[in-house]
Amino acid sequence: MGTVHARSLDPMPMHGPELGVQADDIEAPEIEQEPKQEVLENKNVVVQRVHIDGLGRTKEDLLTYEIAEVFRARNLIDVMRKSHEARQKLLRLGIFRKVEVVIDTSRGEDALPNGLDVTFEVTELRRMTGSYNTMVGNNEGSMVMGLKLPNVFGRAEKLTFQFSYGTKETSYGLSFFKPQPGNFERNISVNIYKVTGQFPWSSLRETDRGVSAELGFPVWKTSQTLKWEGVWRELGCLARTASFAVRGESGHSLKSSLSHAMVIDTRNSSILPRKGGLLKIHQELAGFTGGDASFLKEDFEIQLNKSLFWDSVLSASLWGGLLLPIGDKPTSIADRFYLGGPTSIRGFSMYSMGPQSEGDYLGGEAYWAGGLHLYTPLPFRPGRGGFGDLFRTHFFLNAGNLCNLNYGEGPRAHLQKLAECIRWSYGLGIVLRLGNIARLELNYCIPMGVQSGDRICDGVQFGAGIRFL
User: Fold this and answer.
1) Residue span of the structural domain in which 79 resides
2) Which GO terms describe its cellular component (predicted)?
3) pLDDT tens-digit map of 63-100
4) Is residue 184 domain-shared with residue 115, that is, in the same domain?
5) H-type alpha helices, 158-301
6) Would 136 be classed as within a structural domain?
C-alpha cells in the first residue's frame, strides 16, 4: 500500500492490494463489491510505530501524551480519525506552524502484514514572533502590537508581551503561560500589566498597575478558573467639571482579590450563534488577602439560542450581578456595575443609566438585564452563499435595571427594588459578523421606561464589540 497523506477523514481510494491480502487471493468476478469505507473499517490493522519529524527545541515527552490515542486504533478509518485528532492537539499547543500526517505500511524485519507506521511532519514556530492587529472591544477599537516567545523551555510554555492603544484604553503587559503536559486545558499563567482607561460617562480616569496568577482546569463539561490579583489603582478626574462624588473617589487604593469563574459553552459560535447555550458564573472576594477594598462580587450570564424556520434564530439572554461591601467602607466606583448602551440595553447611551451625581454615572451595586432577539436573513437574500451571509436582520427587546441596595433590608425588598423603574427598549437593525472576532450592529432603537437622569439614544445607534446582551 502506498503512502497516504491523512489531511481529511475522507475514505482513502482503494488502489492495488489491501493490507495483508495478496492480489492472487482475490477473485474479483466472484466477490460482490462492498462500499469502500466499509472495507476499510473491517480491516484490522496495528499501528507499530509513530514518528515525529522536524522537532528542534520541543521535548518529545510533551508530545507523547498528544499522540497516544493513535496506537489504540484498530482499523484504517480509525487510524485516520485518531491521527487527525492528534494533529489538532499538536496544533492547539501553539508551538507548530504546520503539522502534516503521513500513514504508510510498516517496513523492516519486525513489520507485520497489517502493520502501519504513522509519521507527523511538524514545522516549529520561530523562537520569536511579532504581531500587529486591530481589536474591537465593547464599543471601542484598539491597535495591538505583540511580541511572543513560543515554546520557551520546550514544553509549550509561552512568554508574551503586548501593547494596546485604544480609543478609551491604553495598556501593556507581560504574561507567562504553561499548560500541563497531556492536558492542555489545565494550565497556569502569570501576568504583569499596566492599564490606563478613560470613562467619560463618569468623568473618570483610572490607572491600574497589577500582577495576577491564574489556574485553569476543566471539570466535567465546565471550564474553571481560579485567580489571584493584586492591583494598585489610581483614580482621577477626567474633566474639571467632574462631580464632587467622583472627586471624592479620586486617589490611590490597593485591591487584592481571589476570584473563581465557571463557564459552560455549547454554542457553535461566540459572535453570532445559531444553536447552543452559555452559562457563565463569576465570584470575586476582595480584602481577604489584604488591600483597601473589601467586598464580595457575584455576577452571571446565561444565553440560549434556537434555530427556527427560514434560517432564522431565536436568542434569549439574561445577565445579573450583586456587589456586597464587607465592613463599613463603601464600595468603589471602579468595582460597581454599569449598564446601558449598544452592547447591553440598546437605546440608552453607553453606561448612562442608574445612580448618578451632577451628570456623572456612579454605577450600581445590583443589576439585571435581559434580551430577546430574532435574527433572520436579509430580505430577498442578496449575496446568498457569499458576502451576504455575514449580514442578519435583527429584531430585539431589551430590559433591565441598575440600582443600589440597602443591605439592612431583606431579599424581598431587594427584588422589589430591582423590579421598580425598569428600563426597556425595542427596535430592529442589521448585524454584521466579522468572522469570529467581533460583530457590528446598526439599530433603530425606541427606548422606554426612561428614568430621570438617564441618557438615551432615540433612533439610530451603532454598536461594535464581542459581548452583546
Assistant:
1) 46-124
2) mitochondrial outer membrane
3) 998 999 999 888 888 999 999 999 999 999 999 999 99
4) no
5) 244-249
6) no
